[in-house]
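Hi support team,

I'm filing this because I wasn't sure whether my run with 5U1 finished correctly. The job status page said complete, but I'd like someone to confirm that the output block is well-formed before I use it downstream. Pasting the exact inputs I used:
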Amino acid sequence: MTDAERIRQLREELTEYDYHYYVLDEPLVTDEYYDRLMRELRDLEAKHPELVTPDSPTQRVGGQAAERFEPVQHEVPMLSLDNAFSEQEMLDFDRRLHERLGVDSDRPLQYCAEPKLDGLAISLLYEDGLLVRAATRGDGRTGENITANARTVKAIPLRLKKPWPQRLEARGEVYMPRDGFEALNRQQIEKGQKTFANPRNAAAGSLRQLDPKVTAERPLTYTSYQIAQLDGADWPPTQYDQMLYLKSLGLPISPYMERLQGIEACFDYFRRIGEQRDDLPFDIDGVVFKLDRVDQQRKAGFVSRAPRWAIAWKFPAQEVMTRLLDVEFQVGRTGALTPVARLEPVQVGGVTVSNATLHNMDEIERKDIRIGDCVIVRRAGDVIPEVVGPVLKFRKPQFRKPVMPERCPVCGSEVVREEGHAVYRCTGGLGCPAQRKEAIKHFASRKAMDIDGLGDKLVDQLVERGLIEDVADLYALSLEQLAGLERMGEKSARNLLEALERSKSTTLPRFIYALGIREVGEATAEALAHHFGDLQPLMEASEEALQEVEDVGPVVAFNIVHFFAQPRNRAVIDKLIAAGIHWPKIDTVDPDSLLLAGKTYVITGTLEHYSREQAKQRLKALGAKVSGSVSKKTTAVIAGDKPGSKIDKARKLGVPVLDEAAFEELIGTD
Ligand code: 5U1
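And here is everything the job wrote out:
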């Protein structure tokens, strides 16, 4: 084969791999193999510069940084979308269309729906199959030429698949998936550079870089949502068919796109997407509904800058502005003082928020937050609301930086900062009521002693009324004491006593975890339990002996020895055992001899025959580790029904995916 033939072959092969990886999300080959072919192509092209073509996969990054972006006149204006915020507004939209089209109100209109990506609108122009120009929206009439940057986005084909039309302008959204955004911000912190407030800002900042080499390093992707111009092929008659046509040309479209009959089906779609929203691998801010039939779109027409035939139904805002009234400090289980923002109450994502975490003092410093500032507050899904940053244009000179108190706001003990750590701690230990409360809440929590009905408010009351000092006192509570508490009747008091009684029969890993030793989480507790078999040998173990346990390093070993050396902790453990807490002894085994030793699995979706916890326990019993996130080190992902984004990540990384049958085979079930 000649070099020229080999170059053509490599290009076709690599373009196909890019397409499968970035557009279909289904990698065909390993990274190593891909890199090898790419290197071979680069070497051959270096040898024959005359054979380099603009659509070669080696040519995604090229040229010099620009001085500025050239203006681009959009031949077809880039419109925006009208918004709706309620079912009523959607009903009005549907009614208006019925009237305008002269369709009876009892005949449903056909819509095409897809999630509204939270990124940046761009236009891609292809001539004779080749990407010749990419532009931002700008003001809708004039945008900026960002071709060199768009070429670095691997989901954007440099050449369309055959048979391509003579000329095509596709439009869509460039955005940054959440995992890429988080990795980018981690990198920014490491480099001492400013972090991005959200994936949208990160995408915008990345696409509008004058140096395309910077854009190339950013994890951007692209999805199409419109054909703006088409020459040399017939216009598909519906929005849905237009998208399928773009897909056939190798352009990515939304895998969530659906064709819907009538407005009720739109309501149902909006609800379904809303339910999936937090699990999607990218941010969305609503759903776009378009009249599906192009002839009906034409009849419906436009109003100034938006089509009458499309609408974006927005989710309630997840980021809003409010005022930071004060910063207070919350004392956690290990004494760590967390700054908490007290905010002017505001609706975020449908709930009222008046407190938000500020994480730690370094974060406050980095974000440059002052008391009195107008701040952006974000609440995404079940995550605790957080302060994203200040809006500097509203800053007044008298606004002051929050200051860490020198004494614990709860018990008055000295507050110290550990060397090399961002955390400040109250030195009061269990003498501090705040630490006591948190230690008891941790002890009662689901993954620890699992004491049903012992909620946070109840623990606060019990400690504040002096009914309990430590976790062992829980088991001495009487029916009268409990029934006398606020929001407690005799029935719930009885239930709580029963739950306390049930919790006495536990397992060693749960008990070790429940003790709340610093940095001993569930996995470490489990490893310690299996290594030592019972509590007594663990309590007697030296730091050296502890470090023989997997994942136990010098710091954790020190924490464990320190914990058991304190007479107060020993006394509480004795009291707990005297109260009747017990667990079966564990036969210690050499963990390396187990069937799945050294392997790591991730579970996603719903399995038919096992709860997530059961599946996890089965794997762990065989020596495997179970992790919450997929990485190159993951042995395999076990996927049940409705798997989340983890499966996409696994596919990207080439990590095998097992279904329930393969899982059962693995754990040896008949
Ligand atoms: N998903 C989607 N986003 N989006 C944005 N479709 C869509 N359509 C748009 C815009 C601005 O405009 C239509 C007028 C094509």
